[in-house]
Specification:
Length: about 260
Amino acid sequence: MRNKLVSLLLAAALFHLAIAAQAQYKVLHGTFGNGGGVRGNGDNIVYDTAGQPIIGVSSGGPNIIKAGFWYTVGISSTLDVAFTSFFGDLKDDAVLLMWSVSASSSFEGFNVYRSSGDEDAFTQINKELIRPVKAASYRDDTALPGASYLYRIGAVSGEIEWSSQTISIVLPSKPTTLYQNYPNPFNPSTSIAFYLPVQQRVELIIYDVNGAKVRTVVDGIKPVGKHVLSWNGRNDAGVQVSSGVYWYRLKAGKEVITKKLVVIR
């Protein structure tokens, strides 16, 4: 009877933890006295819930963070920090990273780290510290189609930076692409973008409605990736063109793509 009662109490405790603790917590050394498995080094230890399978372990500096439910009973620190979610999505040829945190103490901000597949070769890709809001995001416009990346978020607190779990993003491949100019219609200038899957020679030329060449925007070898160029609405002689419809043509290798743009004076 006693063993049955203990089993029922343990099951109830695990059920409660699964509902209440859906986060990754920084826990000070010695917070717990028993239960679960120990993950940590340096000055920090975290304990996973008893019976919780290992989903994934990420390390950062002197800390270890594991995806899954975490033991929260008896936490006494006022800096019980949790990355409650972290995921990525594809948005207009870029990787959009979104994460949420729950914290009882403020951060200076967040950093974003990316690796091309090596767990030990993460590089910071944000130029400035990201604002310390509970629901934050970052757009990685430098991610290349067809590439695979690992991402990790760092939460800065004083001289310490706490790491999130690592997520993997695989971008689909992309053919040579000419984007619609923006703004369109425009005055006085507009941006024209194109994507190259391989390094090659490209021509981007503006034509009028009669097919006469107006302006050569670029003529040369360009590397792999997305390129954004500007046209100021002037011809090769530096004279402003009149209002009307024009065509811009991209020639890259054997690919030729044409789109329409409108000038308004």
